[in-house]
Design brief:
By secondary structure, the chain is α+β, with helices and mostly antiparallel strands. The protein has helices at about 40, 55-70, 85-95, 100-105, 160-165, 170-180, and strands at about 110-125, 125-140, 145-155, 190-195. It has a four-stranded mixed β-sheet. Strand 2 and strand 3 form a beta hairpin. Helix 2 (about 55-70) crosses helix 3 (about 85-95). The chain is globular, with a radius of gyration of 21 Å. The two termini are about 40 Å apart. The relative contact order is 0.16.
Length: about 200
Amino acid sequence: SPPLHTEAEVSLSGDASTAALPKCIAGTPHPVSPSSLTGKKVAKVAPPEGDSALSLEAADLGTEIHELLSRIEWDPANVDLSSGSNPARELVTVFLNSAEAMTLYTKPGEDWVLWNEKPFDLMAGGQWISGIFDRVHIRREGGKAVEARIYDYKTNRSTPEAIARHYEGQMEQYRQAAAKLLGITTDNVSARTVPI
């Protein structure tokens, strides 16, 4: 790794007097994603039953499915799936015909807004957290957020219960991040996985 700068090497400039900065001892901070923090809040569990090592092909399919679902606001009937691969279109079509999708894509009321594939960066507990919410329904009263429901798409081939257990820590991190970003308590934020 490159050598750290000494106090003499790093300074601020702008006027005739130059103020030295303290030595850089930590290096450049790097963000962590909520999915990497799973074991921090909940005991680490084995991958969901039936989940083999994630192949590049499976990861690409998951990314493609997320992209297709990100096109849906409140009416899945209007989504264009034509750019997706056959496997992605098939999985998304089956999901969109499910009772869960009908509930997920029905706007709960006029006072609800949507975050769809919403990136975020924040500091929590001295840690830089960086991630992307797949889908968040936010209820507002008087222009202010009062409740949030986080939905995180999962393309694992496993049972819904096993997937939910495996990602408990990630869902907790998402709850904390949304609460902080929206200025509400975690009691008013729910988060759950949505198996596709």
